[in-house]
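Researcher: We plan to redesign the surface later, but first we want a full-length starting point. Tokens attached.
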């Protein structure tokens, strides 16, 4: 199957008639739609689903009134138009190959708002003529048989579907539903139910003659099924509400970040750092003040301090020389006295004039040793005072400048850090700005927690009812078999129990074979898309519970919770890719916002291995932050066509032009024509 054309008439944000050519070129399967959030990318996916499936596109349990209200809401509205459109339509053309050959189909779904009611019309053509072999009232069933809605969910999906598979709580149920749809197990289960009904009706006339509990058990079973149906409907509604809450939380978190919320988170820490810096700066300034009141002024005249020190040293030497001269004079006087008084006794034999000469010579030698003591001491400090002055001068000329330089540098660092903190604090919005956002976010978190709690309780109730239904079904079957054995009549009735057993065995064998093939396929896909090539994984699926186990290269099981957020997304995409491959249905792939939660490495792997190989036709609906300029260049060899959706907020209208965010029209046309 290949989608060749899509035309929207006053649908959603698309005004008038907007037509997209979708047919890919050989070897270039990708048709790329680019647009900002709200530009109409999801509208294209919704339109294709709606054109194919009508009311069922919104879900299996959507009431007719809800569907008609949805159709009315999808008619384009333009605030600048006096007369608003009251009609909308979707036209989808595609090629489909069946055993009879290749046929061209055209589906036109249109509706008109007539005020009191909505009138819907469906037209179906094959090879240019209305499909007369099927009555118009059964055209919708024909389309659903052509492209089963369950199978299409594996090929037409968005980020919500990927996230649903990535979540631990829902992938078993989603996977079970997908595998059963692929195999047509619902047909087998319906046949089994019909056989049970046939058996029950055939035995109804004999119940009065044979004591049995079949009627009562069947009644209880039907009541339980109705209760389960109600809970399943409630779960579907709550899942949509849960997804809406998660999206609201994402939007609020983005608004908070855009308003400076990330800076506000650090505000208390910044204020504490600012206070600490102020205290440390004040301590440094006090230390400088103490230095200023002490020896710091002398540091401003180092040469004068050194000159003073030199003068004090000279004065100290002068005092030492004077003390030496005084000592020499006293010593000379003592020697002279000793010589002249003939002491010791051996000098008595020496003549007096010789003793006098000797005394004069010794005095002269002593005076010469003391040296000259001329000079004037200007300061007159004591030796202890000079020691203090020397210490202060050394401190003022060496230690104090170093300490001042260190304190000055610290003050400069403190000032820079404080200015940086002040700049960060200016980025943080005021409480008036953040308070409403934080309040809304807190309410959303609370609602999300309550919804998760409610979902957990609901899942438990569903599990209990499903177990009860299985138990009641077994009881009904056993009772029916017992009655059939009692009847022991010839014909088809006694074959029903064996047929039902055979159907059950057939279903189990069919599922087991498909699951084994799916295991290998999803393992291969996951390892192709996962960036951790040195740690290959194997994915195992239980054919009974459909629980998925990821194993490392040594065979050790890994909880899905241990996978990174990116790996969970890759796992979900790998599962959808593998389900599509094992379906053996050559359908086009349509994927909306596929890369929102992936890191750059995983995005690169998807752009290289997944998109060009996922199907023979791949429609990608992306923002400029997902398929950015680098990924666009990487995908260009596989792109057949590219469209840019631009939303005018004043006109509330989306315009369509060939090209992408970074390519003009002629460049893209040239690229797609190569």
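Model: Full-length starting sequence:
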């Amino acid at each position: 199957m290949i989608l060749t054309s899509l035309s929207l008439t006053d649908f959603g944000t698309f005004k008038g008639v907007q037509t997209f050519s979708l047919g890919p070129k050989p070897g270039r399967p990708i048709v790329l739609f680019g647009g900002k959030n709200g530009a109409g990318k999801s509208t294209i996916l919704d339109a294709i689903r709606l054109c194919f499936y009508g009311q069922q596109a919104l879900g299996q349990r959507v009431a007719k009134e809800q569907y008609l209200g949805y159709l009315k809401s999808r008619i384009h509205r333009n605030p600048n138009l006096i007369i608003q459109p009251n009609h909308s339509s979707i036209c989808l053309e595609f090629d489909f190959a069946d055993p009879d050959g290749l046929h061209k189909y055209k589906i036109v779904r249109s509706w008109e708002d007539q005020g009191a009611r909505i009138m819907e019309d469906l037209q179906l053509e094959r090879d240019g003529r209305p499909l007369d072999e099927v009555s118009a009232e059964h055209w919708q069933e024909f389309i659903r048989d052509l492209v089963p809605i369950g199978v299409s969910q594996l090929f037409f999906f968005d980020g919500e579907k990927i996230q649903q598979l990535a979540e631990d709580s829902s992938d078993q149920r989603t996977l079970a539903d997908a595998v059963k749809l692929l195999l047509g197990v619902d047909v087998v289960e319906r046949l089994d139910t019909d056989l049970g009904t046939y058996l029950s009706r055939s035995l109804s006339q004999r119940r009065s003659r044979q004591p049995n509990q079949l009627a009562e058990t069947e009644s209880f079973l039907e009541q339980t099924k109705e209760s389960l149906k109600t809970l399943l409907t409630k779960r579907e509604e709550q899942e949509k509400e849960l997804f809406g809450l998660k999206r609201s939380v994402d939007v609020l978190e983005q608004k908070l970040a855009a308003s400076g919320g990330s800076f506000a988170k650090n505000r208390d820490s910044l204020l504490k750092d600012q206070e600490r810096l102020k205290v440390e700066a004040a301590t440094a300034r006090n230390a400088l003040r103490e230095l200023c009141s002490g020896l710091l002024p002398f540091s401003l005249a180092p040469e004068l301090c050194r000159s003073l020190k030199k003068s004090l040293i000279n004065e100290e030497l002068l005092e030492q020389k004077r003390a030496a001269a005084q000592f020499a004079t006293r010593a000379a006087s003592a020697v002279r006295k000793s010589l002249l008084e003939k002491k010791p006794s051996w000098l008595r034999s020496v003549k007096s004039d010789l003793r006098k000469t000797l005394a004069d010579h010794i005095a002269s030698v002593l005076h010469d040793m003391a040296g000259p003591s001329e000079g004037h001491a200007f300061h007159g400090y004591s030796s202890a005072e000079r020691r203090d002055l020397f210490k202060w001068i050394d401190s003022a000329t060496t230690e104090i400048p170093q300490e001042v330089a260190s304190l000055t540098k610290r003050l400069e660092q403190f000032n820079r850090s404080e200015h940086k903190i002040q700049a960060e604090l200016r980025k943080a919005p005021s409480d008036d700005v953040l308070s409403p956002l934080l309040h809304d976010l807190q309410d959303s978190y609370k609602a999300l927690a309550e919804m998760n709690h409610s979902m957990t309780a609901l899942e438990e109730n569903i599990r209990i009812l499903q177990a009860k239904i299985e138990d009641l079904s077994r009881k009904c079957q056993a009772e029916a078999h017992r009655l059939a054995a009692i009847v022991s009549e010839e014909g088809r009735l006694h074959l029903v129990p064996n047929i039902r057993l055979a159907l059950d065995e057939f279903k189990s064998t069919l599922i087991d074979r498909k699951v084994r093939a799916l295991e290998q396929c999803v393992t291969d896909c996951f390892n192709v898309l996962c960036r951790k090539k040195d740690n290959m994984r194997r994915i195992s699926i239980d054919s009974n519970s459909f629980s998925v186990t990821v194993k490392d290269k040594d065979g050790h099981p890994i909880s899905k919770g241990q996978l990174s957020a990116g790996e969970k997304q890759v796992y979900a995409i790998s599962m959808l890719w593998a389900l599509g491959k094992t379906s053996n249905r050559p359908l086009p792939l349509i994927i909306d916002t596929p890369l929102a939660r992936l890191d750059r490495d995983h995005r690169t792997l998807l752009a290289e291995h997944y998109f060009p190989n996922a199907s023979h036709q791949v429609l990608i609906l992306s923002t400029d932050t997902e398929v950015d300029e680098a990924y666009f260049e990487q995908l260009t060899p596989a792109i057949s066509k590219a469209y840019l959706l631009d939303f005018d907020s004043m006109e509330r209208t989306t315009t369509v032009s060939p090209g992408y965010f970074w390519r003009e029209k002629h460049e893209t046309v040239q690229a797609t024509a190569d």
